[in-house]
Design brief:
By secondary structure, the chain is mostly helical. It contains nine helices and two strands. The chain has helices at 9-19, 40-48, 53-62, 72-86, 90-98, 108-113, 121-131, 141-153, 165-171; strands at residues 115-116, 119-120.
């Protein structure tokens, strides 16, 4: 049988942006730049090695709210804002937040899922963090070189044809 055609524009745009960082994908539906697709673990690893790593480690790993004057809501929003830099996927942000030490502080899980009008506290926190996100993670040159190697690794064994997409893509980086 034939495979099913699935919606994948967001992933395609993220891949395009990774391969061609200086160009805008045409026909995109996203508002502004989005980060490349990364797993939850990749996001935590990237954030834990960033310049502001202590901030994410304090919020995500230890649940330390002292930098926020003990205000749980401010700490929740800070973690959501940090996550919004790495992913603009609300479901992924929610999944990662639920694994954080902040979420597991006494009473926090109940608050996260409590209704605030049409949405939950967690949904509202994520929405506001995404609305306030003016800058997103973009891979470094080192990451782009690694992506190029991955593209080269998946090229067919056949004799290169200069009209193929793979060759056209790589030729621009030669």
């Amino acid at each position: 049988g034939h495979g099913q055609i699935r919606e994948g524009q967001t992933k395609l745009d993220a891949f395009y942006q990774t391969v061609f960082p200086d160009r805008e994908p045409s026909n995109t539906q996203s508002k502004g730049q989005s980060s490349p697709d990364m797993s939850d673990e990749q996001i935590i690893r990237k954030a834990s090695n960033a310049k502001n790593a202590e901030k994410i480690k304090g919020l995500y790993i230890t649940g330390d709210i002292s930098p926020y004057a003990g205000d749980d809501s401010s700490a929740d929003f800070a973690l959501c804002s940090l996550l919004a830099f790495y992913t603009q996927d609300a479901e992924q942000m929610d999944r990662i937040f639920r694994r954080s030490a902040l979420y597991h502080r006494p009473g926090r899980a109940q608050k996260w899922d409590s209704r605030r009008g049409a949405e939950t506290y967690g949904e509202r926190s994520i929405r506001k963090a995404l609305e306030g996100c003016s800058e997103t993670y973009q891979p470094s040159t080192v990451d782009r070189v690694a992506m190029r190697r991955k593209i080269e690794a998946i090229q067919p064994e056949a004799e290169p044809n200069e009209n193929t997409w793979e060759q056209a893509t790589l030729a621009e980086y030669e």
